[in-house]
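Entry 12.
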Amino acid sequence: MNNESLQPDYFEEIYAKSDDPWGFASREYELHKYLDTMMHLPQTRYRAAFEPGCSIGVLSGMLAARVDHLLAVDVSEKALERARLRNLNKENIDFQFMQFPREKPKGTFDLVLLSEVAYYWGDKEFDQARDEVMHLLEPGGDLVLVHWTPFVEDYPLTGDEVHDRFIQFSQGSAQFLHLEGKRETSYRLDVFRKAEKA
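Predicted 3D structure (tokens):
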């Protein structure tokens, strides 16, 4: 398995061939997963959320109903164009081009959502992203992970590796708590919280 992160041109090529290459807006699996994700957000309302890898903005539109402000980023300009069109009426979403974790957002967040994105990072960038998430999360802030678990040859990591690494990190840190986890047939969902300041 390749240990290097997938680069932006990989995604630009995919979006050039299809408006919705993974069926985010059409597959019943995706709708079920999105509703499951929303149901497992620990808080009813969040002040500021960060969503790396927002793609065409389907989940972003759902998140907008639960947050005061959402920063949704992606490495594909084509995907971001479609996300903006899909969410024209949602003024609390800011869609930006950003290659996280090489580029970092300003400010802090009480919710970070990593949905179908962390398995695109090789080992080095995965560790950078994990550490940056810890910096970006406010005390008491939540991290929600949701990833497809079947093996994909192109991806540096599997969904299981992503979730297991975050769980292992939480076991060695009193500041990062694993609140709950569940496994469906083809995806995993785990919820973490950054501890409140003592």
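Annotation: The mean pLDDT is 90. DSSP finds six helices and seven strands in the chain.
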